[in-house]
């Protein structure tokens, strides 16, 4: 029996390997193949001289074939391989959205992130070492022979230029790793249109080059400022450890005159641009390869291959990327492929059951109703939060209200459920600030690991769960969704109990609150970022958008293509699910900050698509309902749905939405 | 091939009212004055609309000249006119700057001008100013002189939007509800309008500097929606925008600018754009999405157009013999594309089918060279270049706006209407000319997207009037296509019996 159970699993793993791992490997291979090209461009730029063009070209060609360059290329290949490995390990389809600055700080200081930063620092130094060897001249080695001024003998001195470039590499590596967290560099978003890989790469290339140049200039400026103030620390440390003299005849670089060296800044910038370009190209290729559409078979003639078919992959819970690819494929087939749509509407043989349609529509409806529940729970949480504050007695009624709604029986995944999960296990204390959806099947394994290893004894863990701090913000989050279930909150040695209604507790909490509110830094760190909870709610909405598109197009196509009428049986379900979701989304957009547009970031490698996913979801939802209502028209009156839903659909029929 | 010679002679004296029994009837016929449709037909005159007489940057000339410091002037020049302005300013104030700077900037300026003139000789449209470019590539005939700038029917309801000379947009509905007026700071030189399909409220507006998406709540009674209802979409280097096209599913919006070689595919809700670049042609002037959503035509200012397929976004190049593609329209099933070229008096047809992998060459389907009709008050010449093409949603009538000769007084612009037949072979048959009131020339036309009794052509006239010309006919093709839908409808009408299957419990 065991063998029977594991067999489909291996089948699924094989398709996972076939798709994701194979794509990652191909993207890394292409990044390695692109390395000689970028290196050649870098060599040309680094040796650039305006007045001796022929010597410049001949220098560069001889340098490109030199053994040192070949060795550098090998080192760079290693760097690219490690970068590719990190891409595969860290990439996520659902961005982690920190809801306060404290949470962001926690992510940056997380051990896993520290390892990441360390590796990137090392890789930055390696690339910069290669760059300095390639540039040659005064940058080539760490030690240079120099003549001591008093005795006149030749000793080995520290070459500060080389050290400067190496430290710049470490700095850029760290800032890349840091910005990767802040800008969600590892978030992979899907494009609204499908393109072949090569045109897409060609289209993105100018943007990547521009980004890497701009990022390199910023980093060069920041590093120069840093070195100006703290450059003597590493310099003295290196010279004392390696027993290198400091050449007093040369201008030290941590001075204003030393830094205002045009050639040094030029080389710093172009090496930085080369460094960033290497990394960004790897990220870009990985994104292009992973998000490429994959066509799953709708049904298979052999039962062994059933695990690789669309309905089975759609229901996949563990590997998010396969689920996303399957949903994307569903959206595409519903719009573009008549033959595959017919397979969806087909009946099973023998038996005559519409298994394909039932599985696909069921999975889509499940996704959408899960989003509805999430939104409703969030709204309830926000609403009850306001009541708790005003009167302690009303809190009881507030929680009763929630208890009455049957929706609460499902596990909550809203930011409001912070405290529930904090009761559940100590190691999940910090879960909520990172992402409220850690427990959902949508978070990537990387994120889950990241959160799972969170140190519960970090100094902030006790404070983060304090409702007094959480409640001070714009009340986007509820401190009390399940407030009657948690009892003891350690806070600076104070033990307060929220479920008791005593005035003493309220007084205490008010005092603590006002005490903490006066500390500006704490306020700054713990204040919730506006929109963050809204963004977090819709973080995985790309899946919902595809589900909406797929469902609506399939239903619309069924009007003329569905020979057996399989869609008719589920049409009432689908319509009511869409209308209920629309109501929940409408209510969500009435919350403060929910409808405010995010600031557009220009030219950054981080993808900020997730910030506008909620608007995209709303538009996709309305379009989906319109698609169905315009196709079916008056026939919708014959569909068995409740009166208020019919009223809402009538609005759509009259184009009043 | 159909030519204008076989057309019935135009009636010049009165406005064409409608088509009935295969005959275009004009206001001359007694007893036909009662117009059947209750659609609003507003009129706008140039005098009531005060346009912007000059662009904002040149309002300087009204004020007294005052010498600023060089820094201030340079900063202003950089802000107003970019690098060119800055270099120009430095060169002009040679006595205040060091000599090498003045000489250097003069040299750079000369070099830039030489380079841009070289570029401009390759693509002459780049030398036009922004307004001239919009006027050149707009589908509205004589755009800069017209009180009406653009027009668009809503694809699903009886509602249309009109862009006016004073850069405002008015929305008219069939019933006498308030007409909202849309104004926005960025809404300048509107070149194209299009309502989002499968949506009740969103209207895309192609402006001089950006793309605006208005969300006009149909239930709202407000006559001046705030500018907060508009989304501004812009991309550096992508202006002026002369054409926009929503995908028929309403999920994507494509915008084109004659100065930008890439067209933008917008995900409007997410406000993100994917540029699709093809260098040849020097820009994109006109876009048209096929009604089935599978193909997109992109015309360039050069003698070249492209047909994109929208699944993987690859394109076919179609070099033309003479001029650029001026206008185009798709048949309702997306299988046939009619095109008109600048400088040619014919209509070309391309037939696409999934089986053969696309056409190899375009065929000429209509000859529109000048034809003279004798009339009671002198001869009337009709024919010329095609300014725009429009095909009604049932695929039965094709309206062609023919450019006249503004010098000759008996050669006005007219609309010629063809009957179209797709089986057994594609064929154009003459129907008649749509004439306006005396002295009025057509500027723009569009078919109503869902007229019940045939087709309804809406025409914008040079005197600022918008009129509707219904064509009453019974459609032969549609009845055959209806039968499977009716069969399905009979299934759905009984809600109690729509459970065809027992519920699967697994």
Describe the structure in your own words.
The complex is a heterodimer of chains A (657) and B (506). Chain A has 27 helices and four strands. Chain A has helices spanning 2-46, 53-64, 67-90, 101-108, 111-135, 160-182, 197-230, 232-241, 256-259, 262-290, 310-314, 320-336, 338-345, 355-390, 392-404, 418-424, 431-434, 445-452, 461-464, 467-470, 503-518, 520-526, 532-537, 541-561, 566-588, 613-632, 643-653, and strands at 143-147, 154-158, 488-491, 494-497. Chain A starts with a helix and ends with a helix. Chain B is of the alpha+beta class. Chain B has four helices and 32 strands. In chain B, β17 (295-299) and β18 form a beta hairpin. Residues 478-506 of chain B have low confidence and may be disordered. The chains are: A mainly alpha (657), B alpha+beta (506). At the A-B interface, α24, α25 and α26 of A face β15 and α4 of B.
Comma- or semicolon-separated keywords:
heterodimer, A: 657 residues, mainly alpha, two-stranded antiparallel ribbon, 3% strand, elongated, B: 506 residues, five-stranded mixed β-sheet, 4 helices, globular
Write the layout of secondary structure elements.
The complex is a heterodimer of chains A (657) and B (506).
Chain A: H1 2-46, H2 53-64, H3 67-90, H4 101-108, H5 111-135, E1 143-147, E2 154-158, H6 160-182, H7 197-230, H8 232-241, H9 256-259, H10 262-290, H11 310-314, H12 320-336, H13 338-345, H14 355-390, H15 392-404, H16 418-424, H17 431-434, H18 445-452, H19 461-464, H20 467-470, E3 488-491, E4 494-497, H21 503-518, H22 520-526, H23 532-537, H24 541-561, H25 566-588, H26 613-632, H27 643-653
Antiparallel strand pairs in A: 1-2, 3-4
Helix pairs in contact in A: 1-3, 1-10, 3-5, 3-10, 5-6, 5-10, 6-7, 6-10, 7-10, 12-24, 14-15, 14-24, 14-25, 24-26, 25-26
Chain B: E1 2-3, E2 16-20, E3 23-26, H1 70-92, H2 99-122, H3 130-137, E4 148-153, E5 159-164, E6 169-173, E7 181-182, E8 192-195, E9 202-206, E10 211-215, E11 230-233, E12 243-246, E13 253-256, E14 262-267, E15 272-277, E16 286-289, E17 295-299, E18 304-309, E19 314-319, E20 325-330, E21 336-341, E22 346-351, E23 363-367, E24 371-373, E25 380-382, E26 386-391, E27 397-402, E28 414-421, E29 427-434, E30 442-447, E31 454-461, E32 466-472, H4 476-492
Helix pairs in contact in B: 1-2
Membrane topology (chain A): Multi-pass membrane protein
GO molecular function, one term (chain A): protein-macromolecule adaptor activity
Pfam family, one (chain A): Ndc1_Nup
